Every structure is written in structure tokens, then in C-alpha cells.
């Protein structure tokens, strides 16, 4: 009988991140296909995931390639889920299928991942930074000697179009001034949409001015962002409108998108020298849209040859269990301790078996012949007392309480140096949840020092989306002085993105 996935030690895991997911055009029933993957222990079969979008939902399918070298029919068990920012599976999306037979090129619908309601109300949970992360676990009844995890990424590339519209004779009696233009993709040389824009000044001079956008002839996408800026006589920009059609906007809604400007016609005329040089009102429309290019890549593959559980436990897996309570009691009461950890100011008593079980670095130190011939003391010069105490508390209990950002950063560094994978994963998830414009620069440095590509990519994407607030900040200025190479890498990505768009 097939064992449940939570108890399996040999599941193959495929983790697929889709960036800029909400630029996918549901009304065109577009599909997204993952990079293909072939698990080592599954008879040379090759697979891929397919996302199919409709007006109401997005569903995930698992497909076996026609041209793989496996048997004509292959039986697997699998589980598909959406991952939250901390890497945990969102339970409401999990589905399990046992003993499913796949023929070559066969497709099996696994789950409805996203509904229109989720896109409207739970985007922060399912789509942090507009990134959808899907996990597919596959296993058979045959045992194997390794755990394999493949990480893949697909990016829906975007382009940016800037259109400057000048409305002449603004102070005249005309109340409606129409204009129209086309949005074209430069990378694929096709027409994306046609836009008709009208400026409504109103008959009452005290009535606020409104810009009206009508989108018609949608050829490739209805998902876009439009920023509207008012330009003064010297070209200084003031944001006066914003449209985002990526969430819950139907084709009919695109026929009329009103954008109120912050001034009335009278106020504009009163500030004519500032905003109406030569009696012209100047507006800049910035459109950001998907260009139809999708970049796919396999980022990395991780192997675990020691048959550790594929499931990474969360803090709750250890919290308040009899074993963890007993272990911590031994540590807290300093009973049967056989090793000392010495900082510059304090000595901590611990147990060799516990340290060796959770840290390869401590294991190496404790099995070192030179140390074995001493009194069993390890000098810890790179951690202060508080951080070492928290590290030991986690090693004994698997629990973190009242974690703060600064402490999480220090523990993240300690976990990386002493090779405590579970603690590092906990800290990484906390840093992702706590990421904001005030700590993004420091978090980027932490990820870079630990060579953590997943966290680093997450932070870089956040910085590029909030560059106007982060780049002028004191923390970014300090980063450019202390780590100019890292700052230049980020700025180069910003430049390349602007050139692509």
C-alpha cells in the first residue's frame, strides 16, 4: 500500500517559481509550461507542469513528455501545492493522487490553484511580489537512496512604453480633448493594444480635470500597469493617476478607465507659468505590459544522499514535544554536559551528541583529534552571548520565540557558518516576511554573504520594484560605500531591465 507523502523519505520535489505571474492574460486562455525535468530514480521518464488560465481560475496539470526514454506506462503518486513565502505548503491547495498511470505524452489535471477571489483578496499569501511558487512532489512505492529537489524559474518578461501627450490651447472653451496612440512590443514587433485618451476639463472651472483611458483592439494582453504623470514647465513629474488591470479587471472594464487629476481647470490656469507653458498641458503615460517572452531556466538541483526526510519541519514540529522538553531541561540544568562553548565573556555547557547531530561544523570540531586531546572546549569568538544562547536553544528545541529582525539576521549568519540548515531556513523565511524598504539593503548584504541565491533574488526583485524609495535612502548609500560590487550588480540589473522594457 502506498505510504502517505508526509512519511515518505524518497520523494522527488520540483519547485517552480513564476515571476510576474499576474501579467498572464486569463482572457486569452494562455498556458505556461515549466522547464522539463527528469527525476533520477523514475525510470528515465521526463515531466513538466502546465498552468492553464481562464477567466475564473488557474489550474495546474502534470504532463509526461512524449519523447522520454521511460516505459510506455509509468505509475507514480504525486502531490501539488502552492508555497507560501516561508516555504510552507498552503493546505487548501494540496491534492494527493495515488497510483496514477501516465502514458507517454499524457496529461493529468492536478488542482485548481488560483481563483478570481484569491487574486482579489489573498494575493499577499499566494503571490508575494507577484511570484507564484508551485511545488510538485512525486514518489513511487520503490525505495531509493537519494532525495532530489529541482528548482526552476519562469519569468514573464515585461516592456515599458512612455507616451507624452500635449494638449494645446488648454485654457480655451473646449471641455474634451481626445487623442489616441498604439502600444507595440519592440521585442516581438506586434501590436499589443490601441489606446484612446481624452482629457475632460468640465464646463465648471472649479471641477476637477479627469483623464479618460479607453483600451480597444486588445491583441495580446489585457494585463498592464499605467502610471500617469503631470509634467511641469521644467519637466518635473507629479504622479496624478494609476491603473493596474492585472487583478480582477474584465475586458468590458477596460472600455472606460477614469483617472482624476489633482487640479481643477481654474487651478491649472492660475498656475499657467508652471503647468501650461505656451498654453499646453503635458501628461506622460507610462505603460508596463508583458511582451510575450517567457524565460525558463533550471536554477539548481539539490541531492541528499543520507535519506534525511524530504519534509523540512517547521518550528511547531518540535515545539513542546516531550523529547525537545527533556533535551532542553538537560541543557538548562547543565546535566551530563561534556563540552564547553566559550565566548569572549561567557561559558556555555552543552552535549556533544546534540551538537554533532545538528551541525556538521560542530561535528568536525568535536571529532578533531587535537580537540579530543584537550578538555573538550570550543572557542566561539564570532558570536556574542545572546546569539549563542539563542542558537543553542534552537539546537535543543527547534523553537524560536519573539524573533526580531536584527536578531534574525545574526542567527541567519550563525546558522550559515555552523551549517544548521533548519535554523537558516527559519531565519530566511522570517527575513522574507519582514522585508521592507527600510531593511532591504541590509538583507541583501546578508543574503550575498551567505551565497543564498533564493533570498538574494527575492530581495533584489523587491528592491527593483521599490527603487525610487530605496536608492535615495541612507542605507543604500552606505551599501554603495561598503560593498560597491554588490550595489553595482543590483544597479546593472535595474539598467538591463529598463533597457528591456
TrEMBL record:
- Pfam families annotated for this entry? BTB
Q: Where is the BTB domain?
A: 337-404
In terms of superkingdom, the source organism counts as Eukaryota
Matching InterPro entries: BTB/POZ_dom, SKP1/BTB/POZ_sf, TRAF-like
Q: Return the PANTHER family for the record.
A: SPECKLE-TYPE POZ PROTEIN
- Please state what the protein is called: BTB domain-containing protein
Amino acid at each position: 500500500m502506498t505510504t502517505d507523502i508526509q512519511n515518505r523519505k524518497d520523494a522527488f520535489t520540483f519547485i517552480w517559481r513564476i515571476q510576474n505571474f499576474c501579467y498572464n492574460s486569463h482572457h486569452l486562455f494562455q498556458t505556461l509550461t515549466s522547464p522539463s525535468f527528469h527525476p533520477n530514480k523514475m525510470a528515465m521518464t521526463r515531466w513538466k507542469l502546465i498552468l492553464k488560465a481562464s477567466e475564473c481560475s488557474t489550474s495546474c496539470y502534470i504532463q509526461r513528455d512524449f519523447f522520454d526514454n521511460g516505459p510506455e506506462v509509468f505509475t507514480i503518486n504525486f502531490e501539488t501545492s502552492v508555497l507560501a513565502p516561508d516555504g510552507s505548503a498552503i493546505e487548501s491547495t494540496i491534492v494527493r493522487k495515488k497510483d496514477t498511470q501516465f502514458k507517454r505524452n499524457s496529461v493529468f489535471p492536478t488542482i485548481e490553484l488560483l481563483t478570481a477571489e484569491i487574486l482579489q483578496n489573498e494575493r499577499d499569501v499566494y503571490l508575494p511580489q507577484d511570484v507564484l511558487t508551485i511545488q510538485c512532489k512525486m514518489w513511487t512505492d520503490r525505495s531509493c537512496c537519494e532525495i532530489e529537489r529541482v528548482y526552476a524559474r519562469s519569468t514573464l518578461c515585461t516592456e515599458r512604453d512612455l507616451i507624452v501627450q500635449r494638449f494645446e490651447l488648454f485654457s480655451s472653451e473646449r471641455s474634451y480633448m481626445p487623442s489616441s496612440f498604439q502600444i507595440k512590443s519592440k521585442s516581438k514587433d506586434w501590436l499589443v493594444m490601441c489606446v484612446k485618451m481624452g482629457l475632460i476639463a468640465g464646463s465648471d472651472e472649479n471641477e476637477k480635470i479627469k483623464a479618460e483611458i479607453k483600451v480597444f483592439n486588445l491583441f495580446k494582453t489585457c494585463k498592464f500597469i499605467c502610471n500617469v504623470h503631470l509634467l511641469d514647465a521644467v519637466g518635473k513629474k507629479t504622479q496624478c493617476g494609476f491603473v493596474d488591470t492585472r487583478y480582477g479587471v474584465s475586458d468590458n472594464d477596460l472600455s472606460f478607465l477614469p483617472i482624476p487629476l489633482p487640479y481643477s481647470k481654474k487651478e491649472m490656469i492660475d498656475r499657467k507659468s508652471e503647468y501650461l507653458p505656451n498654453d499646453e498641458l503635458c501628461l506622460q503615460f507610462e505603460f508596463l505590459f508583458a511582451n510575450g517572452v517567457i524565460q525558463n531556466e533550471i536554477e539548481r538541483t539539490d541531492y541528499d544522499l543520507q535519506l534525511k526526510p524530504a519534509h523540512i519541519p517547521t518550528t511547531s514540529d518540535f515545539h513542546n514535544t516531550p523529547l525537545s522538553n527533556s533535551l532542553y531541561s538537560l541543557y538548562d540544568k547543565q546535566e551530563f554536559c561534556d563540552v564547553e562553548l566559550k565566548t569572549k565573556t561567557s561559558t556555555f555547557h552543552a552535549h556533544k551528541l546534540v551538537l554533532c547531530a545538528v551541525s556538521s561544523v560542530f561535528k568536525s570540531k568535536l571529532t578533531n583529534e587535537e580537540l579530543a586531546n584537550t578538555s573538550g572546549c570550543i572557542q566561539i569568538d564570532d558570536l556574542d552571548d545572546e546569539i549563542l544562547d539563542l542558537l543553542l536553544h534552537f539546537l535543543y528545541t527547534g523553537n524560536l520565540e519573539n524573533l526580531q529582525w536584527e536578531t534574525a539576521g545574526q542567527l541567519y549568519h550563525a546558522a550559515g557558518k555552523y551549517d544548521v540548515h533548519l535554523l537558516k531556513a527559519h531565519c530566511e523565511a522570517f527575513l522574507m516576511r519582514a522585508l521592507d524598504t527600510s531593511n532591504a539593503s541590509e538583507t541583501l548584504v546578508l543574503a550575498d554573504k551567505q551565497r543564498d541565491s533564493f533570498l538574494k533574488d527575492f530581495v533584489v526583485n523587491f528592491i527593483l520594484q521599490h527603487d525610487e524609495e530605496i536608492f535615495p535612502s541612507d542605507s543604500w548609500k552606505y551599501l554603495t560605500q561598503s560593498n560597491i560590487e554588490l550595489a553595482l550588480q543590483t544597479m546593472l540589473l535595474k539598467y538591463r531591465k529598463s533597457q528591456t522594457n
